[in-house]
Write a structure and sequence with these properties.
Helix content is 4%, strand content 42%. By secondary structure, it is mainly beta. Among the domains are: 122 residues, Jelly Rolls (Sandwich); 119 residues, Sandwich (Jelly Rolls), CATH 2.60.120. Strand 12 and strand 13 form a beta hairpin. Its EC number is 1.13.11.24. InterPro entries: Pirin, Pirin_C_dom, Pirin_N_dom, RmlC-like_jellyroll, RmlC_Cupin_sf. Its cofactor is Fe cation. It comes from Marinomonas aquimarina.
């Protein structure tokens, strides 16, 4: 095994993560045509509605009853980074922010001292299938930032930098830089959009990186070395086979890496895709219960008490599974009331 690989793990829906990351879910649903009300034009018989994770016919309703997704629920003490490679998500939250994003967009939300939000998967097309593929990554906050004001941010696909590279044989590799700068072999630094102001990713010394790596058949690409002591995990989520240095690897695996070592990735199958999560560990105690992540049990108890008392600002929307209609395009409405679209940036 390559000396750079410290651990090799199998992937399921919820992927293994390491400090400063708390959680990573990969949603890959082949939804059918929509029914005109943003739900599936298919029978829901046999599904555990409200808790449908079975994957019947290749898709799930999750906690949705009419539209798939996750109706209003609270968070405190960390951040969600939702990267939608395909399909759409309708967001609404207790700050009054909302959005429809997808097709490569990333929504980055700092829960901080507390927020409610909903994440629904609108099936906008009635004349064709509505596949969705996304990652949701939970990035922890250090104790000093766990009670900051919540923040809603949008990183549009059109503004998210991609490094397009070729190996010696002319095969292409593409690195989508969601967080953390990438130093290309040419010496050019690919700089991502800024994370939220209180994020662990906001301090360059923490070397947080979230990259999506696409390799053509037979392409080679080298993951550059970073500082020692970082958490660094590479997820092989699409493709067939490959090599990491001289180690044979296969799709649906994760590799915990030595962050101080460069690693050559050789795609020996069809198009291959990887997700990289990297960051300096926060190194603080973690106490988690469901949607709350704090440092102590007492802080967790306070989080539940605060939510019961305040509902983290309440829910200003008509529905707990709020969606944004059949005709709406991609947009972000911020807590300030300002509205942004990819075209307006």
């Amino acid at each position: 095994m390559s000396a750079a690989i410290q651990q090799r793990l199998k992937l399921q829906m919820f992927w293994p993560t390491f400090d400063p990351f708390l959680f990573c879910a990969f949603h890959n649903d082949r939804f059918p045509e929509g029914n005109g009300a943003l739900g599936p034009a298919a029978s829901l018989a046999g599904r555990d509605i409200g808790q449908d994770f079975a994957g019947i016919n290749g898709w799930r309703m999750y906690h949705g009853s009419k539209v798939p997704g996750f109706p209003a629920h609270p968070h405190r003490g960390f951040e969600t980074v939702t990267i939608v490679n395909e399909g759409f998500v309708d967001h609404a939250d207790s700050m009054g922010a909302a959005g429809r994003y997808g097709e490569g967009d990333t929504q980055w939300m700092t829960a901080g001292k507390g927020v409610q939000h909903s994440e629904m998967f609108p099936l906008v097309y009635q004349d064709k299938a509505n596949p969705i593929e996304l990652f949701q990554v939970w990035l922890n906050l250090p104790a000093k930032n766990k009670m900051v004001e919540p923040h809603f941010g949008m990183l549009w696909n059109e503004q998210t930098p991609i490094a397009a590279l070729q190996d010696d044989a002319g095969n292409e590799a593409r690195v989508k830089v969601v967080a953390g700068p990438y130093l290309a072999p040419s010496g050019e630094t690919i700089t991502p959009l800024s994370p939220p102001p209180d994020s662990w990713a906001g301090d360059p010394d923490n070397e947080v990186a979230i990259w999506i790596i696409d390799l053509e058949e037979s392409a080679r690409w080298t993951l550059p070395a970073a500082s020692p002591g970082l958490s660094r995990t590479l997820y092989f989520f699409e493709g067939q086979t490959g090599q990491l240095d001289a180690t044979e690897v296969a799709v649906q695996e994760a590799y915990v890496l030595d962050s101080s070592a460069a690693l050559e990735i050789n795609n020996t199958g069809s198009k291959a895709r990887f997700l990289l999560l990297q960051g300096r560990p926060i190194g603080e105690p973690v106490q988690q219960h469901g949607p709350f992540v704090m440092n102590t049990r007492e802080e967790l108890q306070q989080a539940f008490f605060d939510y019961q008392c305040t509902q983290f600002g309440g829910w200003p929307w008509q529905d707990s599974d709020q969606t944004h209609g059949t005709e709406k395009g991609r947009f972000a409405k911020f807590a300030s009331g300002n509205i942004e679209t990819p075209e307006s940036v």
